[in-house]
Amino acid sequence: MKTRMRPGAVFLSVFGWLFLTFIYVPILLIVVFSFNANPVNMMIWEGFTLDWYRTIFGFPTTLNEQTLYVESTAQLYSAVLNSLTVAFLTTLVSTIFGTAVALAVARFRFRLKGFYRALMFMPMIMPDIILGIALLIFFVSFGFSLGLQTIVIGHTTFLCSYVFVVVSARLADMDESLEEASADLGADGWTTFRRITLPMIAPGVIGGAMLAFIISMDDLVITYFISGVDSTTLPVHIYGMLRRGIKPEINAIATIMLLASFVIASIGLYLRARKR
Questions:
Q1: Cα dihedral across residues 22, 26, 27, 32: positive or negative
Q2: CB-based contact 186:235 (threshold 8 Å)
């Protein structure tokens, strides 16, 4: 006998599909129009082409100079290199500091521990534009020259919080009796950390590092305030291109960034979900 769905279940099912459509259709449109051959109006489909991707990677295309939008491939590569440099340095520093703070909060008792934990969440909930302005005032007040170094410092200030949250969740699921057993067998603190704690929390540390890398690569608002003239990152470079209109070339760059972010996020979530 066929079972009829209740109205509430039907409503939830429809709502779920509409919600997913609302989220993913705009992303799908970016991917589709990145193959649009129309060089002027991306909303009018004129046929399939890979010329926009060939342009990004410096391969010969059938496009003329009037239809190209990237000022030069060298500028695009420079922006990509700056983004990768900032992301790698920021990920390294924020992972070390975020993990150290998570271990300190989880394993030690000290006054105002709850308040300190709440402070670690503040950069995550603070609006990016507020944080960007605050960092700009800080750097200018203390005489910092705006450039890659200020971007790395600025990204580290809030990415430590993301690493802290991910590693703290991993530590919460960890069996502390293993560390106690290691200490009972005569191992010192460093040996216990190296042989027991670090292998157990490694998936969380790697997942937090990958999350920090993705956020650093995609950040626009904070980077826009604290980047110098010769330190344009890829998101800021794309934002500058958008001021002249949206063309398939930008969609192709966005699609490549989307694919890279998806791969890195998938690896991070997989490692974070691993129990061992």
A1: positive
A2: no
DSSP 205-256: HHHHHHHHHHHHHH--HHHHHH--TT---HHHHHHHHHTT---HHHHHHHHH
Tokens (6 digits) for 7: 């109205």
**What is the distance between the alpha carbons of residues 215 and 141, in angstroms, rounded to a whole number?**
27
pLDDT at residue 184, rounded to an integer: 82
Instruction: Quick: pLDDT tens for 78-120.
Output: 888 899 999 999 999 999 999 999 999 988 888 888 888 888 8
Backbone region of residue 52 per phi and psi (left: phi > 0; alpha: psi in -120 to 50; beta: other values): alpha
**Other beta carbons less than 10 A from residue 258's beta carbon:** 16
DSSP conformation class of 6: P
Cα atoms found within 13 Å of the Cα of residue 127, Cβ hemisphere only: 3
